[in-house]
């Protein structure tokens, strides 16, 4: 699925900085949201280390963001859509590569 999504990447020249910046912002915002969401059970009495491990295990993304980006590019063609699709593809690849090792650590019980 990532190969198909990678074939959609056609970022305009000179906008590589935007793509990397948006991808980094997407990964960081998603990680902050997952950590904040996983911390909610601590208010109900769950152990804090369990909440941290759950947040780390939720880091990898699936194909839904890629499908949404492709749909966005189809609905609103143009340079902005190309940058958005490229940023989403880079963010998904980065979070999936990072997420595999982080999820393995979370499942082993090392926060």
Nutshell version of this structure?
This protein is mostly helical. 74% of the residues lie in helices and 0% in strands.
Fold blueprint:
Blueprint: H1 2-7, H2 16-39, H3 48-57, H4 64-75, H5 79-108
Helix pairs in contact: 2-3, 2-5, 3-5, 4-5
Quickly list its features.
111 residues, mainly alpha, elongated, single chain
Provide an overview of this structure:
This protein is mainly alpha-helical and 111 residues long. Helix content is 74%, strand content 0%. The protein has five helices and no strands. It has helices spanning 2-7, 16-39, 48-57, 64-75, 79-108. The longest helix is centred in the C-terminal third of the chain and has 30 residues, at 79-108. The model has no long low-confidence stretch (mean pLDDT 76).
Taken as a percent bin, the fraction of beta residues is under 5%
What percent of the residues sit in helical stretches (DSSP H or I)? over 70%
Overall SS class? mainly alpha
Number of helical stretches of at least 4 residues? 5
Nearest-integer average pLDDT: 76
Radius of gyration: 16 Å
Q: How many distinct beta strands?
A: 0
